[in-house]
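The data layer described in this paper is built around a simple, fixed record for each protein. Such a record has a labelled line for the sequence and another for the backbone structure tokens. For reference, a complete record is included directly beneath this paragraph.
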Amino acid sequence: MEDLPSPLLPQLLHRHVRVLCVSLLINYCIQSIELTHITSIVWFPNYLFQALSFFNWTVWIAPHNVTLAAVTGLTGVSGLGLNPVPTFDYNQLYIDPWISPFFTTVNIFAGACVAFPIILALWFNNVWNTGYLPINSNAVWNNQGKRYNVSLIVNDDGLFDQQAYENVSPCRFIIAS
């Protein structure tokens, strides 16, 4: 009796090779898509074109308008961030509605809706002499609108010196902090 599997072996081998090639092609396509995705959201904005991260297009309309820069400027840089398209970099967006729970997103939105008009009213009315300071910053300022030099109010041991503090200037904080 003849061996039946011997004529079928090339057909089976050919079929398995074809499945393997299709599988490798699909894997290559998926890896190419992943690499393109990672390149587009991480490498391109962070290393090649950082202007995508900080794009304040509203100030381009009126470059010398301080009020427009204070209201629509970038949050944490120069303004309150009331800008419908603050960035073209997805990495800069701090709330991802797919990951954050709904109540967290609503809480942040409600807090911004309550705090935004209060901060603007206090800043425009120059309450506590903050009208000449930036509306949003993490720095400490002196009474002349310059960054506070802490080394002027400490002694040689690095301890606070009350007399030097009274001679230099009181600390000024911005209205949004």
